[in-house]
Design brief:
- A hairpin with a 4-residue loop joins strand 4 and strand 5 (about 90).
- The chain has helices at about 1-10, 15-25, 40-50, 65-70, 110-125, 135-155, 175-180, 195-235, 235-240, 255-265, 315-320, 340-350, and strands spanning about 30-35, 60-65, 75, 85, 90, 245, 275-280, 285-290, 325-330, 335.
- By secondary structure, it is of the alpha/beta class.
- The protein contains 12 helices and 10 strands.
Length: about 350
């Protein structure tokens, strides 16, 4: 009799209802919450990244500022006044928030940076699921993508200037990803229309550019590092100064040169810096390029000689004393010669000229 009563109580609807509800909810798509109204690049990218993950790939994005509505969401970004990874709340607007990506960075995180910090490696793995990428390479890409893509979005959203405020910009720039996402919002004098559809376009725009950068750095930038390392290691075979590096094929080299030099300088602060890089171009001629003072700078460490700048062909060969010359750019940052030896001779002569 006791066993019958126990079985009956276990099978009663009152007991089974919460069990069924929990099982039902566990199979339902999760929801991502963010704020309504005007949107920005950071939450658009944050939502895109989350939807690349298995846990959120079928998720609906709920845009609201109602706390009760947001409380029902499985994860919330850029709204709510709370940053707590355990409860999956990722806002950055609250007083006292001062989170950075790592000790190597000073820029305060936006919602994009917060999501990337906690889920970025998984997002990278998801985008590159069909490629052969090691965990060490994922670690390299994780940092590289932050400093080259996500940090800029963090900085713009938090109002962090790239340069001192007392420096007057030489020109206006309004083509950044953050600016283009901002223009997806309605003009001040037009109807809002479907803001969720506009936000979906913003997610698509930020996501497409982020995905392209992930694939570029994984499939083009990383392989280039191996070529740069080989050229750097053999630099003294090219010239006794150790200031000329030669690549037998072109690759993106500026970031790699800077990184490798930093590693060398830590061990030997007196090591000479690279001044010129040589590589073949698409026409099988050779280029000699001056190394910039830092990646992204238009100023070279040691430009090609002023006396050669702006000259071409025979006039340049006669002035430089090097056969087969093609050109020297008027700013001195790059030049060309028909042969490998000719480009190397231009670089060697340039070492002792201004």
């Amino acid at each position: 009799m006791l066993g019958f009563r126990l079985a009956k109580s276990i099978a009663s609807p009152r007991i089974l209802q919460p069990l069924y509800r929990n099982r039902l909810f566990s199979t339902m798509p999760k929801t991502i919450g963010t704020h309504s109204g005007t949107f920005h690049c950071d939450e658009a990218l944050a939502c895109y990244m989350l939807r690349r993950l298995d846990d959120y790939k079928e998720s609906k994005v709920v845009r609201s500022r109602d706390p009760a509505t947001l409380d029902l969401c499985d994860i919330v970004v850029d709204v709510g006044g709370v940053y707590d990874h355990e409860s999956k709340r990722y806002d950055h607007h609250q007083r006292g928030f001062d989170e950075q990506f790592s000790a190597d960075f000073k820029t305060k995180l936006s919602s994009a940076g917060l999501i990337y910090k906690h889920y970025g490696k998984d997002v990278i793995r998801a985008i590159l699921k069909d490629e052969q990428i090691s965990e060490d390479e994922v670690d390299i890409l994780f940092k590289k993508l932050y400093e080259s893509f996500v940090e800029g979005i963090d900085g713009v959203d938090n109002g962090v200037s790239r340069y001192p405020e007392d420096v007057q910009p030489a020109y206006k720039e309004s083509t950044s990803l953050s600016a283009r996402v901002g223009r997806l919002n309605p003009w001040w004098n037009e109807p809002e229309g479907d803001m969720d559809a506009r936000f979906a376009k913003a997610m698509e725009m930020t996501g497409e550019e982020f995905r392209e950068r992930v694939r570029y750095f994984a499939l083009a930038w990383l392989p280039g590092r191996k070529i740069v390392e080989q050229g750097f290691e053999s630099r003294f075979d090219i010239d006794p100064s150790g200031q000329i590096v030669l690549f037998e094929q072109f690759c993106p080299w500026k970031d790699h040169i800077d990184t490798i030099e930093e590693e060398v300088m830590q061990k030997n602060p007196e090591a000479a810096k690279i001044l010129y890089v040589l590589y073949p171009d698409t026409s099988n001629a050779w280029r000699v390029q001056a190394v910039p003072e830092r990646p992204g700078s238009f100023k070279s460490r040691h430009p090609l000689p002023e006396a050669w700048r702006g000259l071409r062909d025979e006039a340049l060969s006669e002035r430089s004393g090097v056969e087969g010359c093609i050109f020297i750019h008027q700013s001195g940052f790059i030049g060309g010669n028909k042969t490998r030896d000719g480009a190397l001779e231009l670089a060697r002569k340039s070492l002792t000229m201004d």
